[in-house]
Amino acid sequence: MYDLIIKNAKLIDESVTDIAIEQGKLIAIANTITGQSRRVLDLQTKHYVSSGWIDSHTHCFAHSPIYHDEPDLIGVKAGVTVVVDAGSVGAIDADEFYQLAQQANTHVYSFLNISKIGLLRQNELADIQNIDVPLFDTTLAKYPDFIIGIKVRMSRSVVGDNGIEPLVKAKEIQKKSGLPLMIHVGNNPPDLDEIADLLTKGDIITHCFNGKPNQIFDKENNLRESIKRAIERGVILDIGHGGESFSFAVAERAKCLGVYPNTISSDIYSKNRLQGPVFSLANVMTKFICLGYSRKRIIDSVTHNAAQILHLKNKGVLSVGYDADLTIFDVKQQAISLLDSEGEIRQSDEQFIPLASIVADAAKHSIRIEITEEGSKNGLRISN
Ligand SMILES: [Zn+2]
Fold this sequence. Notes:
By secondary structure, the protein is of the alpha/beta class. The chain has helices at 71-74, 94-102, 133-142, 156-159, 165-177, 192-196, 225-233, 248-256, 270-274, 281-290, 295-302, 304-309, 373-377; strands spanning 2-10, 16-22, 25-30, 37-42, 48-51, 53-58, 80-86, 107-113, 147-154, 181-185, 204-206, 236-238, 326-339, 345-361, 366-371. It is built from 13 helices and 15 strands. A 7-stranded parallel sheet has the order 6-7-8-9-10-11-12. Strands 3-2-1-4 form a 4-stranded mixed sheet, with no helix packed on it. The chain has a 4-stranded antiparallel sheet with strand order 5-13-14-15.
């Protein structure tokens, strides 16, 4: 007997399907599934389903003094089944973060900050002694299924007088581990060219469409040669919207030149969730509708692309055998004003509205279902 059948679900290409789940896995996807099921969710060809949304850049260590949030508030309650904390935590707080993360209904992973103090302060790399390689290696070895990447923040306020040195050290550590490396870019020094030239295939530049002077476009508004070369080498572009790091003008220029982000992520934490300009991953995704991206490109960037880039096996694909992480949502025809990090506003006629999250629970061979506030309003109900 199936654990759950989702009936009449719309896919992003507008086709309609049934999906059956058993033991936390997608077990059948077909026009009509008739077998017995303990629970049924009928989407009546009205609502969409995709593989669960993955937010590749968030801050969800609740005990962080500056960038903190609750995983489920930015996760399952917002249609996001996987949240990746991008360096809030360094080796010193990894145990505590791991314990907290296990209590969430959302899948939580960590990109461990190369600085052992994490985001205890804004300038976690101003003292190079905070890069403690033996401690970092021990912590990685302790949590191989939780720590899935390495974070290094390379902007003036973070590195102080240390210039490019923290990135050189991060690359050395990364080469040993093989994990993805996420690099925060912002104000210089170090200069973006100097950073980009050190990056190799699979490294992730987050805040890729920031509007600061050290952005991906030069003074003539051409894409920097260093970024062109980096993209050709397979370096990844991640949005990491945040309070200061997403500019509509830069995103529009990039689209004109055919430069697309590989992943759309929020850089969300309590303050920019409650006061904006981030609000939610769905709100950030909606900004890309307004930029003229196809719905499929947007959904791919929070599912398939993210899973591949973050090396999350069994996630990000709506196919039999993959984890039963799913997001149910509407693309609602409703006007919305959208705000970037520079105070610029754009209007969209439609928006992504998450209605429910389904999360595979590997330990229990089961699933957790969270209907969002909007889902309840829409009368989304599980029947037995
Ligand atoms: Zn961040």
